[in-house]
Amino acid sequence: MRVLIAASEAYPLIKTGGLADVAGALPAALARIGIDARIVLPAYPSVLAKVTERVAEVDLGEVLAAHHVRLIETRMPDSGVPVWLVDCPSLFHRGGGPYINEWGHDHPDNFLRFALLSKVAALLGTPKSPVGWQADVIHCNDWQTGLVPAYLALTDGPGAATVFSIHNIHFQGIFGEEILPLIGLPGHSFAMDGLEFYGHVSTLKAGCYYADRITTVSPTYAREIQTPDGGRGMDGLLRWRSNDLSGILNGVDYDQWDPARDHLLPARYSVDDLAGKAACKAALQREFGLEERPEAPLFGLVSRFSEQKGIDLVLGALDHILSRGGQVVMQGSGDSWLEHAIYGLGGARPGRVGTWVGYDEGRSHRIQAGSDVFLVPSRFEPCGLTQMYALRYGSLPLVRHTGGLADTVTDIHDPSGQGTGFVFGEASVGGLISAVDRAFDTWGRAAWEDARRRGMTQDFGWHKAAEAYLALFRQLTARD
Q1: Domain range spanning residue 115?
Q2: Nearest CA to 424 among 324, 415, 433, 416?
Q3: Residue 15 marked in a binding site
Q4: Which CATH number is 24's domain given?
């Protein structure tokens, strides 16, 4: 079976969030169970700088709106999974990030940039494929590739079966109706039974409407997005397509996230030998200028700074954590007002709070390893990966009961006796503080060590997700 993963980012070539982890790890997991899995990705300058081998190049000529395109074939570092980079200098060779420019605003032609990516991905799933390889299934991810099923249904098909994965329904790819002729889609597609969404074009809706199957990144999130509170206006469409909608929990790449072999840590450790974790905590305290107090529970956070992630709740609970003798380390970036609020916390509370505004992969690993409690207080969370990393690193997750957090963390006082962290329900400072207090009340007791060991032996490896996706892909190809 030939499966194409279409995405706007894939780790380690380019990463802004969890989508990159999925797009990088899932094809490798599929390849391990015998699937011919490949990736199609924009050729951003930062990606081209990391490519050391170019297997082949194919000139596609003018594809959309007179933009010239070529495909560069390479391979993913480590896994060796084949990758096609969509090289279009006029659209992708620019400063800033994949989605925003140097001034923090969306690229104004994002509709065209990701329409081009989608168009090329769709071609790779048809007999007109320019590379001598045709996908049986195209797995599309979020609004950036939501037009792939639309192109196959409206202009380029018949072709591959399509699966559309919603990683975060809040990002919907909203543009004006006037983009349709620029991206090569017919005017009649601007309808309720099509791309129209409250008077605009939504590329996320395109994926939800035209794809053969829809998935989300956790079972609980699949239920939540079919409700008015969680669906962001898409809930009616998703309830209508409920028979085609399923939740497949994201996995963890334990080659990258395992304290027993993590080269980014100052000391390694495992569930059978936790001495290295104490060394990691002391090193983290030194790195962030905290007092070296092994008896103080250290709360870690690595996140995008936004209200969705509950960062404002952490700020509201911070003094309570400190009043009970805890320490806090935070790393991330995002909304400017939260960045500014967090930036000066270390200076205002020296020895007790450490912050880093920005992203650093090594530092994120060290925070996981050095913290005792890992904070993920999201108002909503489609899946979340950091809480699963925390479990393996022996840092008890403190999470809100939502989305994938509810699917991966059980409260330490759960009657099942299988608790692995601290779970709260109400998205408020008070709700967070209630879980913080339970963490302090459990700290240093046997129940803490039992929960830590249970968490470290949990298996959220990608092999489980890969098998679930394979079953879905087989259903689609058998039907075809």
Answers
A1: 2-251+462-479
A2: 433
A3: yes
A4: 3.40.50.2000
